[in-house]
Backbone:
């Protein structure tokens, strides 16, 4: 198993990609701390997979004290952190810059950028003291491309690539690797919400647009993103740091 004896902390663990990743991490031998807003979506997964292998903690990743508490909870429960997946994210409102409010920008940046920074801030010292680890941030195809009607989201996903690159340079000396995983359109709650937002804004059929622009011609599935997360969390990726790992069916090509 690729993650034997590793402890994984993952935010957004109750969401579509998060839940798929948790299942793969456990199947590969890891013990996993599931973090999300509340525990309604994570506790059932802990019950299913076993409380010897998983635990959950409620966190709002925008809140400094709550992120510190999340990291402490993982260390207290499982003894450290070997893999951190900064995966919590929000899509925000769909609409062009002219017609949306600045509060949308603030909200999206708070979760998708501030939340990731806080995670790095509290996890890195734990990993350093533990002798190393692997951090991955869920960016997006939107992190390397523009698209109309999602400026705040795209800006946030570009920003975390910058955070990742700086962090990778800062922490290589501690044996910590840092990368981004960049999914294309993946079939989860978030994607349904984006489709609805495009329809409501009169911006077209989002799914049809994505499928037409994706060489593999379809949405991705959460498992296909989780496979990349297992690779980056495992020693199979021992020479990978500072990288942007597209899992997008070729959409950004
Ligand atoms: N679905 C896609 O097509 C797609 C594509 C590219 C990138 N992503 C990224 O993948 C990640 C996971 O998205 P998903 O598709 O599983 O969506 P999702 O909505 O199913 O999951 C997102 C999770 O993040 C949690 N979350 C939101 N705000 C939070 C906060 N303040 N504190 C803690 N948790 C919070 C939500 O409760 C939810 O469980 C996100 O970062 C998203 O931007 C998704």
Residues:
């Amino acid at each position: 198993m690729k993650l034997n004896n590793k402890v994984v902390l993952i935010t957004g663990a109750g969401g579509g990609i998060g839940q798929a990743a948790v299942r793969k991490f456990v199947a590969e031998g890891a013990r996993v701390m599931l973090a999300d807003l509340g525990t309604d979506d994570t506790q059932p997964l802990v019950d299913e997979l076993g409380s010897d292998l998983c635990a959950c903690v409620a966190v709002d990743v925008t809140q400094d004290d709550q992120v510190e508490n999340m990291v402490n909870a993982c260390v207290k429960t499982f003894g450290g952190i070997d893999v951190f997946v900064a995966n919590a994210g929000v899509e925000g409102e769909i609409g062009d810059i002219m017609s949306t409010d600045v509060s949308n920008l603030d909200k999206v940046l708070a979760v998708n950028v501030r939340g990731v920074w806080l995670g790095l801030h509290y996890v890195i010292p734990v990993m350093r003291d533990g002798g190393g680890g692997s951090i991955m941030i869920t960016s997006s195809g939107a992190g390397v491309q523009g698209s109309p009607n999602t400026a705040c989201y795209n800006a946030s996903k570009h920003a975390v690539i910058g955070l990742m690159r700086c962090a990778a340079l800062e922490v290589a000396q501690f044996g910590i690797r840092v990368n981004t995983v960049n999914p294309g359109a993946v079939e989860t709650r978030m994607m349904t919400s984006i489709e609805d937002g495009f329809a409501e804004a009169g911006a077209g059929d989002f799914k049809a647009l994505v499928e037409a622009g994706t060489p593999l011609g379809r949405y991705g599935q959460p498992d296909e993103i989780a496979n990349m997360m297992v690779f980056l969390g495992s020693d199979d990726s021992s020479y990978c740091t500072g990288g942007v790992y597209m899992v997008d069916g070729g959409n950004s090509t």
